[in-house]
Amino acid sequence: LGAGDVSLRLAVDVPAWGWALIALGIGAFVVGVYRRLMGGRAWRLGLAAARGLVLGLVVVLLCGPEAVRREERVEPDVLVMLVDRSASLAVEDMGETTPSRESALRAALSAQWPEVAAGLDETREVRWLGFGERVFGLGDPGHRGDPEDREHGFGLPVALGEADQLGTRLRTAVEEAVRRTAGRPVAGVVVVSDGRSGEEVSSGLVARLGQSAVRVLAVPLGAADGGLDVAVTRVDGPRRAFAGDVVPVSVGLEVRGAGAGGATAPEVVVRLVDTKGTDEPGDDAVLDERTLSAEQSRGPVRLEATEVEAGPREWVVEAGLAAEATGPTVSELNASNNRAALSVEVVDRPIRVLYVEGTPRWEYRYLKNLLVREASIDSSILLLSADANFAQEGDTPITRLPADAEEWARYDVVILGDVPAAYFGDEQVELLRERVSRAGVGMLWLAGPGFVPGGWAGTRLADVLPMVEPGAVAAMEGGFVTVEPTGLAEALAVLQLGDEDGRFAEASGPEMSRWPAGLGALRWVQDVGVLKPTAEVLAVGLAEGQARESAGALPVVTRMRYGAGQSVYVATDETWRWRRGVGERFPERFYVQLVRMLGRGAVAVDDARVRLEASSRRVNEGGSVVLDLVVADAGLLPAGVADVPVRLAADASGSGGGVELLLREVKRDAAEADDGERRFSAVWTADRPGEFVARVTHPALSALDVQTQIEIAAADDELRNPEADHAKLMQLAEATGGAVIPLDALATLNDPQVVPSVARRIADDRTESVAHSPLAFALLIGLLALEWSARRAMRLA
Questions:
Q1: What is the pLDDT of residue 532?
Q2: Any idea what DSSP says for residue 121?
Q3: What residues in the chain have per-residue pLDDT under 50?
Q4: Are 538 and 479 in contact (CB under 8 A)?
């Protein structure tokens, strides 16, 4: 065992009274053995003593005598460095020298960690972990550091790698860091992060850390305030439009950060840019631009553009802080979420319109002239009350209603005036309804005192009307009505009558800025009653002195989606009154804009024999997408096919793995199935982010390469909201009895008041058995030999 503090002990602990009994027993035994033997008394006493020593030595050896050297060892405590490696560390809000959170972190570790390391001794181990969506070990950079750090002149204690995690799971990371210590004493968990996490600090986490006596020390990254982020969250616009059409683009914005909702929040600039199909700088053309106040940026922002050249267009929506708002105290946190792309195909052909009217009322006289005069419209006009010799008007005159599906397919928009339903046969009504629901044809209803809408109650076209009870609609009694548009009309780029020469005072409010006040009041307006849940109001009628937000405002212009198409109902036939003093300007713009909006539905529907459509091209992770496959030519698929497989893959080729989805056939009644079209549908739940290509893989359709694209946004995408959340870090530190350490004060980690030592001293005694030692063997043999020699001398052996 060497020199030192060595002691002896018995493996079997015998009490004192036990040793007394053993001694008495041995004494009685040896006395009984040598009492009656022949020989001198001195010799017998010597032999008895020798025998007693032998027996006593045997008993001691049986109790396991051990030599023990007292020693102890120190189990070092663990200081866990949990470093955020999420994408939000790229946000630049840390100043001019090290603008990004990542560069500030690297600079701080490079400059301060040598001092921290110098204060560490063998009683503390530092363990480096990175975290984001998961927890992982950080690599050893070697004696020279990793290449990226050497390039910037940094020498880091670990190789941090790229900060590219799309999400941050702070709670999970802390729990995993403690689990990885495997029962070792934990001096503390140092969380180096901006606090941006989709997980909240739960009471359960705090309780578990308290049970393990683990404290969290927070090192916040990023600016606590002063940064703003403008994000384009949604872009909606038509996929196809007519040349010369005003294309509306609805933009969803979010302005986040300190002071984003205050009265002094900076203005935001939103632009619609045509990239001209190239990435070359200087080729972009700004199509529309708006500067918004903080209040205006909270709702959908409407941009618009007019394109006269046919072909595909690649547009981009850009948003950011106004130039005068940026400066040393206000900066853009994240520029990567300021853009969103939009593809639009411009079709250069006239909008084909069929206008059917019952009698030559005033509305008909001006509307038919407008349709003939407008160069972007190819009109066919049918007046039912005209005699046989009347020459029907229009660019493409007709003498009767379309009789079959092929003739109905010539039109993009159908305007239905005060026409009795009886004039249409059941087959014509069904064909028109099918054109609206499946081909995207738009319907424009013009109210009339005779047949619209009451005469259409009970027919299949009643489904296309926006009111619940067409038969109960009646004209409003008494007074004049002034028409005012709603905000939806502004977003759809309709009912923008304008007032270029200033003859009319413009109404107040951002959604009314393109509607001139002072238009002629209407004397005849219908009260349409209760609208269907999917109907939307584009304009309301107000009595004198009535507010637009009042409950009694009458819907004058309503819109409703119906399948692939849409229907607009105008509850008056007196827009011709707006001609007074200004001519055709206002009625013309009123109808042309509605016709253009309705016509976009027909041109947006693909004429391909097979179409794969997604209910939404961009959804958040965890959301659902409905995939619909339309097979217009039933001969492309065998009759017995009830399911069509579709592969959703994360690459364009579809070869990189993915998800198989079966689209099941949608059952249709006998009347609907006569057109030979087949439909298949399925719902896909987006379980991971990325850009996916959905491609039909059925052998009968694979050669057609039918596909569509879907973008899935990460639910906890770091860059959707890059503002630092220091409050969350402070809450976690305070709840666990830890502390908040500034990034420029990492040397505080050596302060025993901040990070006390919890290293454990563990006894590590060294023992050796005496019973198996040569000394014990020699003693036993020596005593036995002494007794035997004495017995020989007395002639007893």
A1: 93
A2: -
A3: 142-154, 325-329, 501-513, 654-655, 671
A4: no
Contact status, residue 301 vs residue 291, Cβ threshold 8 Å: no
User: How many angstroms from the chain centroid is the CA of residue 238?
Assistant: 24
- Starting at the edge strand found earlier in the chain, the sheet holding 413-416 runs 377-383, 351-357, 413-416, 442-446, 565-570, 554-562, 535-542, 482-485
Beta pairing partners, 41 = none
Give the C-alpha separation, 444 to 383, whole Å.
16
Is 485 within 8 Å of 539 (Cβ atoms)? yes
Q: What is the pLDDT of residue 278?
A: 59
Q: Which residue has tokens 């958040």?
A: 620
End-to-end CA distance of the chain: 42
Q: Do 718 and 167 contact (CB within 8 A), yes or no?
A: yes
The Cα 538–Cα 568 span in angstroms is 9
Q: What is the CA radius of gyration of the chain?
A: 45
pLDDT digits (tens, 9 = 90+) for 343-362: 888 888 899 999 999 999 99
Note whether 431 and 405 are within 8 A (CB).
yes
**For residue 772, how many other CB atoms are within 10 A of its CB?**
11
Going by C-beta distance under 8 Å and a sequence separation of 6 or more, which residues neighbour residue 663?
627, 628, 629, 643, 644, 645, 646, 680, 681, 682
pLDDT computed for residue 342 by the predictor = 83
Asked whether the beta carbons of 267 and 292 are under 8 A apart, the reply is yes
364 Cβ neighbours under 8 A, 6+ residues apart: 357, 383, 417
Would you state the structure tokens that stand for residue 494, as one six-digit string?
Answer: 């309709």
Angle between the 362-373 and 585-604 helix axes, to the nearest 10 degrees? 60
3-state secondary structure of 231: strand
**Which of 235, 256, 255, 237 is CA-nearest to residue 246?**
237
Nearest residue to 539 (alpha-carbon basis) of 597, 488, 593: 488
Give CA–CA dist 261/15, Å, rounded: 82
Contact status, residue 361 vs residue 368, Cβ threshold 8 Å:
no
CA–CA dist 268, 337 (Å, integer): 14
Reduce the DSSP state of residue 409 to 3 states and report it: coil
- Alpha carbon distance 783, 187 (integer Å): 59
CA dist 470 and 467 (Å) reads 6
Structure tokens at 568: 């607009």
d(CA 197, CA 84) in angstroms, rounded, equals 10
CB-CB contact of 694 with 707 (8 Å): yes
pLDDT at position 692: 87
β-strand 268-274 against 240-242: which pairing, if any? Answer: unpaired
Q: pTM of whole model > 0.85?
A: no
371 class by beta-carbon count within 10 Å (0-12 exposed, 13-18 middle, 19+ buried): buried
E-state strands within 604-658 = 610-614, 618-620, 624-631, 643-649
Query: Which residue, 239, 236, 237, 243, is CA-closest to 596?
Result: 243
The two three-digit tokens of residue 183, written as one number: 């029962």
User: What is the distance between the alpha carbons of residues 315 and 346, in angstroms, rounded to a whole number?
Assistant: 12
